[in-house]
């Protein structure tokens, strides 16, 4: 209720005719978070808003209305504190989910600490620069919201996943573990009694870590940083500022989200990043290579966080052997970050960066083997490609379970990657038309929106 009033009040107080000055802070080292932010902020900049964009990555093309501030030295600073990014592949086998979650919380706290102390941001605090709006990334870095309180501006949060505990808390979105599967588990909305029990326990655990570990850690950073600038003021508890967020944009869509209640200031904008990068095209020789494959092309990528060459070598050679068996029939494009692929079959091309959307858009591409990141799955559905999902971390088990329940792909468990299981999964998908039919049906639903998701995101932000 109060959030709604706040939206209305702020709407009345913003002069809609002028471009706004927006402070955007995206400290995450996950590339997909940056990409999502970049798409939204670039569109805002195109419409005449003036953006200051803090992030670890760089925009490939400069924009007149965006001043970029690169956060340097994050990696080194976190490493000094023993908080390196986990190797998601080995962590999956060696670490419990609980252990991974606490690591993520500690790491995100150190990250927000570093970001708020970053000299350029400290300058902003000292001079109390004038801004109209704060936009932050949802990456367990809620202490950043202190910026909104200090600068006395409304805040918008961009969440690169579907709804989760941290985003729900901001807007008071309900979570009922009896039918809302937790993002860190691989369940669907139809859970057995045992699964519901596990789902409830994990949700309870999340709540406990939120209240007794996450929040106090963020609160400490928030108090340390903002007390210095407001020594005479009684800082409100961080949780009040978290509850004061005006709008949360979640990167999801009804077909990627099981039926669940969503409050009105949480807005689903999944798919906004698709076709946003007009400069992304396939080089002519790769286009010809795809075009000339007699039985089509398989595209494989494990996303930006995990490198394919970090897979155990027996698994890599299992893939290589299977791909080799398609010589003369299918061709393979592999996002492969290393210079060499041992025993490289000549129907496979590898490259460290690939224009993923352009490849998926090509009609001769028949199958996408993916880690099951949400943005990749959205692209697969958009371009009507069935998938094989190799879930590795985060919400990927959850996404994999959803792919199977929607019938447009199969999950291949990391514990069970062998020549047989890969061959099995590929054959199943290429020979059984149901996968293709299902993804085509979903694609229609995904594109059937009353308003383009990027326009909806920008509209909602301008509304605030
Ligand atoms: C930048 O903003 C101005 C208005 O402040 C607008 O006229 C212009 O088109 C924007 N520039 C770009 C490259 O979109
Ligand atoms: C909540 O946000 C509004 C602006 O959106 C601001 O005026 C108000 O002071 C904020 N309250 C707290 C407790 O941060
Ligand atoms: C490529 O792989 C080899 C052997 O696995 C490794 O020693 C090397 O560091 C890798 N190179 C890159 C750029 O990752
Ligand atoms: C491993 O893969 C094979 C072949 O696809 C399959 O029959 C088997 O059920 C899988 N095992 C597990 C534990 O998933």
UniProtKB/TrEMBL annotation:
Keywords: Glycosyltransferase, Signal, Transferase. GO terms for molecular function: UDP-glycosyltransferase activity. InterPro entries: UDP-glycosyltransferase, UDP_glucos_trans. CDD domains: GT1_Gtf-like. Residues 1-19 form the signal peptide. Belongs to the UDP-glycosyltransferase family. This is UDP-glycosyltransferase UGT5.
């Amino acid at each position: 209720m109060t959030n709604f009033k706040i939206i209305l009040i702020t709407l009345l107080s913003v002069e809609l005719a002028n471009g706004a000055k927006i402070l955007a802070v995206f400290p995450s080292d996950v590339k997909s978070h940056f990409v999502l932010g970049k798409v939204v902020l670039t569109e805002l900049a195109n419409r005449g808003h003036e953006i200051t964009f803090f992030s670890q990555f760089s925009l490939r093309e400069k924009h007149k209305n965006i001043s970029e501030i690169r956060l340097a030295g994050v990696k080194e600073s976190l490493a000094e504190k023993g908080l390196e990014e986990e190797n998601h592949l080995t962590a999956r086998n060696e670490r419990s989910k609980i252990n991974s979650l606490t690591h993520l919380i500690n790491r995100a706290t150190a990250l927000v600490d570093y970001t708020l102390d970053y000299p350029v941001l400290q300058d902003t605090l000292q001079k109390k620069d004038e801004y109209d709006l704060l936009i932050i990334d949802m990456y367990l870095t809620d202490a950043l919201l202190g910026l909104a309180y200090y600068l006395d501006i409304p805040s918008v949060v961009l969440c690169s996943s579907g709804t989760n505990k941290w985003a729900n808390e901001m807007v008071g979105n309900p979570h009922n573990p009896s039918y809302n599967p937790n993002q860190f588990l691989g369940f669907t909305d139809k859970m057995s009694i045992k699964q519901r029990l596990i789902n409830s326990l994990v949700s309870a655990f999340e709540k406990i870590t939120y209240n007794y570990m996450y929040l106090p850690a963020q609160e400490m950073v928030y108090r340390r940083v903002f007390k210095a600038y407001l020594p005479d003021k009684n800082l409100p508890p961080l949780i009040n500022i978290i509850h004061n967020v005006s709008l949360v944009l979640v990167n999801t869509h009804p077909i990627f989200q099981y039926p669940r209640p969503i409050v009105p200031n949480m807005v689903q904008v999944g798919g906004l990043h698709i076709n946003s990068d007009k400069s992304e095209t396939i080089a002519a020789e790769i286009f010809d290579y795809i075009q000339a494959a007699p039985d089509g092309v398989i595209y494989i990528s494990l996303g930006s966080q995990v490198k394919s060459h970090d897979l155990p070598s027996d698994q890599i050679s299992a893939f290589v052997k299977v791909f080799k068996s398609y010589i003369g029939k299918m061709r393979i494009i592999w996002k492969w970050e290393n210079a060499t692929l041992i025993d490289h079959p000549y129907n496979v091309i590898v490259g460290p960066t690939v224009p993923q959307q352009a490849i998926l858009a090509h009609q001769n591409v028949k199958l996408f083997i993916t880690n099951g990141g949400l943005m990749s799955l959205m692209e697969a559905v958009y371009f009507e490609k069935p998938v094989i999902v190799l879930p590795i971390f985060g919400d990927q088990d959850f996404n994999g379970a959803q792919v199977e329940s929607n019938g447009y792909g199969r999950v291949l468990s990391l514990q069970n990657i062998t020549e047989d299981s890969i061959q099995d999964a590929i054959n199943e998908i290429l020979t059984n038309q149901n996968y293709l039919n299902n993804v085509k049906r979903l694609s229609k639903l995904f594109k059937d929106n009353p308003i383009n998701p990027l326009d909806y995101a920008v509209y909602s932000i301008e509304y605030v």
